[in-house]
Write a structure and sequence with these properties.
It contains 18 helices and 8 strands. By secondary structure, the protein is an alpha+beta fold.
Length: 377
């Protein structure tokens, strides 16, 4: 390592810190890595569910050089979003909806990408090399890169764990054609712990370090487009967007400092919002409420579907009117979820009376199946 290269790396770290990143480390990207085989096994097992884009981009996703053959080094950056309080405390407040910590503020993709571009512009003027910036919407496996660069390690829940920041790091990557000396990789410090595996409410981990997304609450509430498997609905509890359980129980969090900066601060209307209030959202109200949130990409119908499952899990009869109001919703996805919720909350005689007045007039086969299910329960 030349003095000039060392100075340049420290200058990049300094500039990254000025932009608000909590950690900045370097790694090479030319050697083969185990992540390629893990991705292939994940796809072959069908664990990606409906996320066809993962299979469609598998060749480019498998290795950074497959995505950009000229790349030689990666600058991997982390931004701490650790919460001030235990995000699982809200599980006991069943009339409220739980939104994952990362989505309680404005969309982190926009914030991180803007900062990556600023850092990339600064690097381009000093490196004399090409570069590209990536957030987690790109076909790049940023978590194995982060482990290789020493930010942390992929825990048994498959997320990155840091000895400094626990399980609460947003990641960003800058690939460059410059040859920058690598930092030491991080090793696995999970040991015999299986807290994250045992905490999963839907048993989404077939084995340590393996995730079956088809059972994951985050996948089911965000990526999955249709009705959720009735077997899995009770496990959703009052989680209406994402799930923090496996992250929040990680023992390494006790060494982390809550560090969510002001631009990522939680908005009051996204911290345990009332389920009845969310169930009443129409499309315009949904768009207004979640205008700068990652939740906006899910769309109103999927969110209200999740809210109705939470209402069905609430055991709260005061939420019956909110569910009943959605029986005539324009969306079959929402109507079907409302039927299930009412089947859980109402006495059987009232369920049968509602079925008598609604089921025969229902045109959607999926909703008709929901009515048949609650009638035969």
């Amino acid at each position: 390592m030349t003095t000039s290269t060392s100075d340049l790396r420290e200058s990049i770290r300094h500039r990254a810190a000025e932009l608000g990143f909590n950690v900045c480390r370097f790694t090479g990207v030319e050697a083969p890595w185990r992540a390629t085989g893990r991705l292939q096994a994940f796809l072959e097992a069908g664990h990606h569910g409906e996320m066809a884009w993962m299979a469609d981009t598998a060749e480019r996703r498998g290795h950074p050089r497959a995505l950009w053959p000229e790349a030689r080094s990666a600058v991997v950056l982390g931004l701490n979003y650790g919460p001030e309080t235990n995000p699982l405390a809200g599980l006991a407040r069943r009339d409220r909806g739980l939104i994952s910590v990362y989505a309680q503020g404005d969309d982190y993709h926009d914030l991180i990408k803007g900062r990556l571009k600023q850092l990339g512009g600064w690097m381009a003027s000093h490196l004399g090399a090409d570069l590209k910036v990536f957030v987690d919407t790109a076909p790049l496996m940023e978590k194995p890169l982060a482990q290789q660069a020493g930010l942390g390690w992929q825990g048994k829940h498959t997320n990155l764990v840091s000895r400094e920041f626990g399980s609460w790091l947003f990641l960003g990557v800058i690939l460059t054609t410059a040859d920058l000396p690598a930092d030491p990789a991080e090793t696995d410090h999970c040991g015999q712990c299986r807290a994250c595996l045992d905490a999963c409410p839907t048993a989404a981990f077939p084995a340590p370090y393996q995730l079956d997304a088809r059972r994951c609450v985050s996948y089911l509430t965000i990526e999955h487009k249709g009705p959720v498997d009735p077997e899995l609905r009770p496990g959703l509890g009052n989680r209406i967007y994402g799930c923090d359980d496996c992250l929040a129980v990680c023992p390494w969090n006790k060494f982390a400092q809550a560090g969510r900066e002001q631009k990522l601060a939680a908005r009051a209307d996204r911290v345990e919002p009332p389920l009845g209030e969310l169930a009443a959202l129409d499309d315009a109200a949904f768009r207004e409420r979640f205008a700068r949130s990652p939740i906006k990409r899910t769309g109103r119908d999927r969110l209200v579907r999740n809210v109705l499952y939470a209402i069905g899990n609430s055991a709260d009869p005061t939420l019956i009117p909110a569910a009943r109001a959605r029986l005539d919703d324009a969306s079959p996805l929402v109507r079907g979820a409302a039927v299930w919720a009412l089947g859980r909350l109402l006495p059987r005689a009232e369920v049968l009376a509602l079925a008598h007045s609604h089921a025969d007039a229902e045109a959607d086969p999926g909703v008709r199946a929901e009515w048949a299910s609650v009638q035969s329960a």
